[in-house]
Amino acid sequence: MIELIEETAEATSIVLDLPDRQRHRAGQHVDVRLTAEDGYEAQRSYSIASAPEDAYLVLTVERLDDGEVSPYLVDTLRPGDELELRGPIGGYFVWEEVLGGPLLLVAGGSGVVPLRAMLRHHQAVGSTIPVRLLYSVKSLDDVIYRDELMGMAADDEIDVRLTLTREQPEGWRGYARRIDQELLADVAWPPSEGPLTYVCGPTSFVEVAANALVGLGHDPGRIRTERFGPTGG
Ligand SMILES: Cc1cc2nc3c(=O)[nH]c(=O)nc-3n(C[C@H](O)[C@H](O)[C@H](O)COP(=O)(O)OP(=O)(O)OC[C@H]3O[C@@H](n4cnc5c(N)ncnc54)[C@H](O)[C@@H]3O)c2cc1C
């Protein structure tokens, strides 16, 4: 591990320099295993935040206060420490240019992590496939990769729509509620344009978003989902 980047108060990126790194596909994850001195082991999955083309492998972990593994990764890990990883894993929640688009990315909280890998990959291969990111997050301060995403949006590479569910800055004119069918109807391309959609976040978020898209007439076969955890967020 070479570097830690504080992305928000709760989320930290872990930059890893791996000796024999296997090329991953944007959207895949790795399993991280921690072993305590007494031999106790805990393993969790973390999406890869970097593009296959990037020099290092990056994970971004959000701290769950009552969690076992995430507080360690966010608060205790130090540059130079080693992590045991397995992967890359997953062949379904991946995006490559041959899969086409238009590409609709729907993130809840840390669910933005694998979608960021897709965005960086899209940029690295110079894809002209239109991309839209709908990102639901509690407040502006909780937006992970904020500068990078806003930079991509300013360059017209992607269209970013935020919904700030708990706290909005003064004068905020974007969405200010949890995603629902109406919000998705507003943001998504119409079903007739056949967007390829990736939804990632807490389990309940993913279910609401995927059901709403299907309710709007989107082909379930073009909606790929990744569930991060058991509870809502
Ligand atoms: C394929 C995959 C990719 C993932 N990628 C990422 C990633 O890129 N970044 C990231 O931060 N996390 C990611 N996760 C979630 C991660 O694997 C862990 O579940 C998370 O870090 C919590 O682990 P913990 O040991 O801290 O909490 P635990 O000790 O496992 O759980 C503590 C409490 O939090 C609840 N909980 C567990 N996971 C979540 C969750 N995701 N959301 C809300 N509540 C939860 C549990 O029910 C429990 O009440 C991913 C999960 C999967 C399956």
Total strands:
11
Q: What is the CATH homologous superfamily assignment of the largest domain?
A: Nucleotide-binding domain of ferredoxin-NADP reductase (FNR) module
User: If classified by CATH, what would the architecture of the largest domain be?
Assistant: 3-Layer(aba) Sandwich
Q: Which ions, cofactors or small ligands are bound in this entry?
A: flavin-adenine dinucleotide
Proportion of residues in extended strands: 25-35%
The number of helices is 5
Largest sheet: spatial strand order: 9-8-7-10-11
Q: Indicate the CATH topology of the largest domain.
A: Rossmann fold
Label the structural class.
alpha/beta
Largest sheet: 5 strands, parallel
Order of H and E elements:
EEEEEHEEHEHEHEHE
**Spatial extent as radius of gyration:** 17 Å
Total domain count: 2
Helix content: 10-25%
What's the quaternary structure here?
A: single chain
Unreliable stretches (pLDDT < 50, length at least 5) are none
The N- and C-terminal alpha carbons lie at a distance of 29 Å
